[in-house]
Amino acid sequence: MGGESGKMYRVVFQPDGRQGMAREGQTVLEVARELGVYIESICGGRQTCGKCRIRVANGRFDTYGLLSTTEHLSPPDAGEQACAERCGLAPDERLGCSARILGDVVIEIPEVSREKRQVIRKDVGSRTLRVNPAVRLYYVEVPEPALEESRGEWERVQEELATHFGLEGVQPDVTVLQEVQRSLREGKRGITLSVRQGREAIRVQPGYHEDIYGMAIDVGTTTMAGHLAHLRTGDVLATVSMMNPQVTYGEDIMSRIAYAMRHPEGRERLHQAILNGLNDLIRQATSDAGITPQDIVEVVLVGNTVMHHLFLGLDPTTLGTAPFTLAIQDAVDIKARDFGLDIAPGGNVHVLPCEAGHVGADNVAVLLAEAPHRVEGEIHLVIDVGTNGEILLGNRESMWVASSPTGPAFEGAQIRHGMRAAAGAIERVRLDPETLEVRFKVIGEARWNTEWPDNALDAFDITARRAGQKQRPTVVKARGICGSGIIEAVAELWRVGALDDSGRFVPGLADETPRFVPEGEKGAFILAWPHETATGQSIVVHSDDIRAVQLAKAALYTGTKLLMKRAGIEHVDRIKLAGGFGSYISPAHALMLGMIPDAALDRVVAVGNAAGDGALMALLDQDAREEARQLARWVTYVGTALEADFQEEFVAALHIPHRHDPFPHLASLLADAEPWRSQRRARVQRASARRSRRRRRRGHT
Amino acid sequence: MGGESGKMYRVVFQPDGRQGMAREGQTVLEVARELGVYIESICGGRQTCGKCRIRVANGRFDTYGLLSTTEHLSPPDAGEQACAERCGLAPDERLGCSARILGDVVIEIPEVSREKRQVIRKDVGSRTLRVNPAVRLYYVEVPEPALEESRGEWERVQEELATHFGLEGVQPDVTVLQEVQRSLREGKRGITLSVRQGREAIRVQPGYHEDIYGMAIDVGTTTMAGHLAHLRTGDVLATVSMMNPQVTYGEDIMSRIAYAMRHPEGRERLHQAILNGLNDLIRQATSDAGITPQDIVEVVLVGNTVMHHLFLGLDPTTLGTAPFTLAIQDAVDIKARDFGLDIAPGGNVHVLPCEAGHVGADNVAVLLAEAPHRVEGEIHLVIDVGTNGEILLGNRESMWVASSPTGPAFEGAQIRHGMRAAAGAIERVRLDPETLEVRFKVIGEARWNTEWPDNALDAFDITARRAGQKQRPTVVKARGICGSGIIEAVAELWRVGALDDSGRFVPGLADETPRFVPEGEKGAFILAWPHETATGQSIVVHSDDIRAVQLAKAALYTGTKLLMKRAGIEHVDRIKLAGGFGSYISPAHALMLGMIPDAALDRVVAVGNAAGDGALMALLDQDAREEARQLARWVTYVGTALEADFQEEFVAALHIPHRHDPFPHLASLLADAEPWRSQRRARVQRASARRSRRRRRRGHT
Q1: Can you say how many angstroms the Cα of residue B74 is from the centroid of all Cα atoms in its chain?
Q2: How deeply is A70 buried, as exposed, middle or buried, from its count of CB atoms within 10 A (0-12, 13-18, 19+)?
C-alpha cells in the first residue's frame, strides 16, 4: 500500500523523537514499524482493536522545523470512524493503522499506545507500575490454503506475524500446534496468539481477544499472597492471600528443612503441598476476577530461599547448614506444565533470582518495589517483616542485606488467638491509659468496636441472620488477632505501663481492671469480650504471646543493628516497614516495641506487601526481571547470625524497647499516657524493692 | 597456566589449517580453544577421558614453512602416560590437554577427535555417517562452596563449563536443577552433563561418564523401525522394528484419518497407541543394547504426514481432504516429557520436517540418506516402498516428489500368510521353472529350505527342544511371508509362466504340481509344506494376495510414470528401491513385476530402510537437520493422483509387467525359464481360444 506517488515526507515520532522519511500514502503504523518505533496494536492494522492510537502535534512549527497539521494525515475513513466509536477514541486521537501520511508530520504516541508505559495503581500502594509485559497478544487472519500449498498452517501464521507485526520465525509451543487447526476453523481463519518475548507462541484462541492475564505470587513461610493483573492494561483485578499449606509440616523454615531431611518423601510432600496451595490461590484469584486459571498465561513467583527451593522441587537441605548453598541463584523460567501449575498449558513461570543462601527472591522483589538502590545520598533501611525477616540497608552506592529468623508471631501464628490477616482479625488496638479500656478494629469492619451498634448481629453467624433477624444491623466481629494487631496490642500495653520493660505484666493489674486475668507469674489481658467476638469466647493477649513478640522484634532489631555495624553505618535516614501478611504495620508501635532503630516518626513508613508488589512489577515489566538479576548479584550479604556479638545483642534487644539503646523519639509517643504509666511503673519498682527486701531477709536468717 | 615465559610460537592445526600464536607452556587444548578449533574432550583437560587425541606432524617442513617436531611439545607426564595406557593411545598420539607448546608446531587432529567426523557403518547399508551430535557430554568438577559464597551450585557449574569448555551461560533443564545437588554429592563434586547445542544441560549424572545414546525411529503406517546409536562414537547398538499398534484402527492412512474423525476420542486414541508403540520400541532397543530408556537423551522421528500429525497429537483430518493442509511443515523440537516419551526426562524429540500434505518427514529422511539432490547430470529415481509409497525424481537441479497409496501388501499385511519382516518370515523365493519346486529362505535362518537337515527341530518349538532332543540340529522354520518374500513369490510364479500377465494362475497347473490348489476361478500356490513351517500348516500364495501385489505395484508404477511425465523426464539413470520393512527388495523381481520402469539390472539398487537411515543421520549430525529443513522446502510436490490420466494408467499398470509399456531389459531375466514358460503361457492362449469358441457358440444358439 502507498508509495506509488513517489512523494516522500518527514515523519517525527514523539516523545522519543525518532524520525525518518515515509512514502506518501503509507499508514502511520507502517512507518512506525519501519523506523522501529513501537505502537501498540493487537490486530496488526485491521481497524479492529483500536489500540494503535496516535495524535498529530497539530498546527505548530515543531523544534524540527516542521509545520505539522492534521491535514497531513488522511481523514478517518468509515472503518476508523466505526472503530473510534466502538473503542472510545478521543476527538484528537487517530488510528495509526488507517491514518496515512500526506505531508510532513509530527506524530505523538500517547502513553496508552507505548511499548513501555506507566500506570499508577492505587490498589497497590499507589505505586507506579511499568507495563511492558513478556507476553503480548497478536490477532492474525490466515487465508484458506490453496490446493498447491505445501506449507503448513503454522508457516502461514508465521508469515502473518512477520508481515503485520514484524515478528520473524515465531515458534509454537506444542499445545499451540495441537490447537491451531481447530482455532483457525472456529475463528473463521482469525486467531489471537499470545506470544512470549516475540519468539514463542504459548497460546492460541479462536477469533479476536484483547484480554491477557498473569499472576504475581509471594510465597511466604506462613502466608502466600498474590495479585492477579491484566498484562496489557496493568489493572490489578484481584488480590488474594492464604495460609501456606506447608505450615502443617513445620512453623518455620528450619522445621521445613528438617521435615524434608527426615522423611523419605518429605521434600516431595512439601513440594506438592506448595503446588496445591499455588493452584488454590490462582483458582481463588481467577474466580474473584471472573476468569479461569487457564486464562493466566504467566506467573511470577518470589519467596525466601527455602520456599524457592521447595516450589521448584529443589533440595532445600543445603540451606539448613553452613555454607548454606543455593542450588541456583539466578532467575528461572519454566513451562507452567513442568512446574505443575494449572494455568494456560503453554504458560510460563518466572521465578525471580535469590541473593544468597538466606536471602531469597522475595527480597529481590522488595528491592524492585522500594528501589533503595536508586536513592542518592540518604541511607535507606527496608525491613521486610515475616516469619523470616529480611533487612536491606544502603543506597545506590552499596547495598547490604541480612536475614533474621523472626518466627511466625507477626503473621499471627504461634499466638494463642493469632490468625491470618483475614476478615475478623483484630488489626488495630488502642488502650485508654487511665481506664485500660480497649478500642480495636477488625478487618472487614469499617467501625471501631466502640462504634458498633448495641444490638448488632454477628456477620459470621449465618443461622442467626437467616432466622428473620435481618432488621438488626450487621457487624464483622472479632475472630482473632493478626500480626499488626498483636504488635499494637503489646506496644499499647507497654505504652500505658501495664507491661514493664522486660515484658511482664506489672503487679496489681487485676485490681485495676477485670480485663487482666492473672495466672501465676504470667497472665492474660482480654482484648475483646465474648459479645464482641464471632466465637462467643474472649480474645486475649497472653504472657506467652508477648514473649513471642519480644523474640521476633529482638531478632529484627539485632539483625538491623549488626548489619549497620558491619556496613559501618550509624544512622539511617528513612525506614520502610514491609510486611506481606495483610495490614500495614503501625510505625509508631513498631518504634515503641523497639523493632526498628529509633527515628522520627515521619521518617518511618509502612509499605505493605513490598515483595508481592515487586513480583507484580516483574510480572508487568520484563525489563524489571533483568534489573532483578543484576540486583541479586550486586547486593552484599551479611550473615548476622554468625557475628560474635549476636547473642549478647539479642538478649539486650528483648527488652522493650531495648536494655541499652536510647529511643529519644519515643518521648512524644508516650506523653499522653505519662501520668498513669508512671504510676503503674512505680508499682513495679515497689514490688521489686519488696522482693529485694525479702531476699535480704532470707539472706539474714 | 603457561605464558609466563613470554615466548610465543606459531601453532597450525590440521586438517583445516587454522593457525595462530600460542604462549610457551599453553596446552594444545587451550590453544585450540582460543583459535576456535574443536578438539573432542569430555573431561575438559583433566587427563581423565583420553578423548583429546592429537598428533604432531613430525620432523618435516610444513607448507607453512615450519619445522614441526615432537620436541616442540612437552613430553608426556605421568598423568598422560597413565591415561594413554588406560585409553589405548597410539604411539604417535598425545593428549591435547597435557601436551604443552614448546616451539612452532603443526598439530594434526585425527578424525576421532574432530567435531564433525565420519564413520562408516556396515550395519547401516555401509553408509558413511557424520558424527556431530546435538547433545555432547561434559565432565566438570565443582569445588566445595566457601562460606561467603552467595552463588548457587548451578552458577558454579556454569563457571566450570565456561572455563574448561568455552560454553557460556548454559541453562539447566528443570530436571537437571532438581538433580544437580544430589549428583554433586554422589559424584564427590564431579558430574557429567549432557548439554544440547552448547546451550541447555538436559541431564546430569554423578561422576565421569562417556556414553550417550539416542534413537532414530521411522514410524510407518504398518511398521515402526528404529536404530539405537551411541551419539559420540556413531555406533549402532541395536536395530529394532515392530508393528505400528495403530494398525488395529485401520490398515492404511485414510482409514486412520477416518477413525480420528468419526470417534470423539479417536485422535487421542491413535496418539496414545503410537506413543505406547514408540515407548515399547525404545524399551526393546535399549534392552537389546543392555541400557535403559532413561539412558536415551535424544530421539529423532520421521514418518509420513499422517503418522507425523498423530504422533505429535495434531489433527490429521485436514490431510484427508483437499487442499490436504499440514498443521506444520517445519521441523519440530519438543521435550520428551511433553511428547510423552519415557526417555531421559530432560531429553529432546526432534521431528524432521514434512514436504507437503502427502509427503512427510520419512521422505525427507530418504533424501538425506540417498542424497539424490547431490547428484550432478544423472537423473535419479528413489522409490520408498511402504503402505504409503513415495517417489523422488531428479538431481541437484530440481527434485520432484509424489506419493502413492500402495497399500500394506509389501509390508506383509492384508496377505493371507503375510507377516512383518521378523524371524520366520519367508524373505526369498525361487521357483524351478521345470518342476515348479520351491526354494525359500527365512529370516533368522542362514540356509535355504533345501539345505535344512532332514531331522531338524523347529527353533520356535521350545517344548520339543526342552524335551531332551537337544542333539538334533535346529532350524528357524517358516511362519509367514514378508514383503520381499511376496514380491519374489509373485514375480517367480510369473517368471516360470504359472501366472499369466493379468495375474491369474494358468490352466492345468494342478496337473503339473501338487503345490497348486485350485479354488474356482482362483487358487493358491503352496510355498512351504507343513513340515517346513513352525505352525505345521502350509504357507501359500493366494490369488487374492497376487491381486494385492498387483494393486500395490501398479500404484507405485503409475505414480512414477506420472511424476516423470510432469517433470518432463523420459529416462532415469539410476533407480533406488528403499523399503522400511526389513529385508531388501530384489531389484530383479521388482523389475519383473513392473513395479519400477524398465532399466538395466545394474542401474537398480535396493537400499533398505533409507528413511530409518536418514533419521539416524539426523540423529548423529545436527547439521543434517538444517539440511533437511532446506530440502523440505525445496522439493516440488506433484499430486499424481489428481492427474486426469491416473486411472487409465493405473489399470494398464495392473498387468505384469504392464499392458502397454515394453520392458526390454526383462528378456535376460526370463531366458533360463523360457521353454517351460512358453509351454504354460501357450496353455493360456489355448484356454482363451476355447473360451472364445464357447462364447461364439452361445452367441449362435
Answers
A1: 46
A2: middle
Report the 3 state secondary structure along B149-185.
CCCCHHHHHHHHHHHHHCCCCCEECHHHHHHHHHHHH
CB-CB under 8 Å, B147 with A322: yes
The reply to whether residue B181 touches residue A318, judged by beta carbons under 8 angstroms, is yes
Is residue A79 pLDDT above 60, yes or no?
yes
Which is it for the CA torsion B46, B49, B54, B55, positive or negative?
positive
CA A651 – CA A180 distance, rounded (Å): 65
pLDDT greater than 80 at residue A62: no
pLDDT of residue B685: 86
The H or E element spanning position A139 is: strand A135-141
First to last CA, chain A: 111
Residues of chain B with pLDDT > 90, as a percent, come to 67
Mean pLDDT along residues B166-183:
96
Q: Which three cell numbers stand for residue B391?
A: 517417489
Highest mean pLDDT among A523-527, B256-260, B607-611: A523-527
Specify the pLDDT at position A83: 85
Distance between CA atoms of residues A74 and A81, nearest Å: 13
Contact across the interface for A328 and B154, Cβ inside 8 Å:
yes
Q: Which residues on chain B are in Cβ contact (under 8 Å) with A200?
A: none
CB pair distance less than 8 Å for A155 and B337: no
User: Which residues are within 8 A (CB) of A682 and not within 5 positions of it... i.e. 6 or more apart?
Assistant: none
**Mean per-residue pLDDT, B595-622:** 94
Task: Name the strand (E) or helix (H) holding B440.
Answer: strand B438-442
Pick the more confident residue, B646 or B269. B269
Q: Are B234 and B121 in contact (CB under 8 A)?
A: yes
Q: Is A332 on the interface with B (CB under 8 A)?
A: yes
Average pLDDT over residues A676-687: 90
Q: Residues for chain A: how many in total?
A: 701
Nearest alpha-carbon partner for A53 in A105, A112, A138:
A112
For residue B530, say if its preceding peptide bond is cis, omega within 30 degrees of 0. Answer: no
pLDDT confidence band for B1 (50 / 70 / 90): very low
Judging contacts by C-beta atoms under 8 Å, the chain A residues touching residue B155 are 328-330
Q: What would the pLDDT profile of B86-101 be if each residue is shown by its tens digit?
A: 888 888 899 998 899 9
Q: Identify whether the C-beta of residue B26 lies closer than 8 Å to the C-beta of residue B64.
A: no
> CA–CA distance from A145 to each of A155, A165, A439, B668, B685 (Å)?
11, 21, 73, 50, 54
Nearest CA distance, B181 vs chain A (angstrom):
7
Contacts of A120 (CB under 8 A, 6+ apart): A126, A127, A128, A129
Instruction: Give the other-Cβ count within 10 Å of A392's Cβ.
Output: 26
**Is B182 in CB contact (< 8 Å) with chain A?**
yes
Residues of chain B numbered 608-647 and touching chain A (CB < 8 Å): 637, 639
- Looking up cell 523426464 gives B569
Chain B contact present for A327, CB below 8 A: yes
In this prediction, residues B30-52 reach a mean pLDDT of 87
d(CA B632, CA B621): 17
Angle, vertex CA B15, rays to CA B11 and CA B16, nearest 5: 75
Among A117, A74, A131, CA closest to A97: A74
The residues, ordered by sequence, that sit 6+ positions from A35 with a Cβ below 8 Å of its Cβ are: A11, A13, A18, A19, A20
Q: Which residues of B416-447 are buried (b: 16+ CB within 10 A; e: fewer)?
A: bbbbbbbebbbbbbbbebeebebebbbbbbee
Residues B284 and B273: their CA atoms lie apart, in Å, by 16
Chain B residues with CB under 8 Å of A329 CB are 150-152, 154-155
Per-residue pLDDT, B474: 87
CA angle at residue B343 from B337 to B345, to 5 degrees?
A: 50
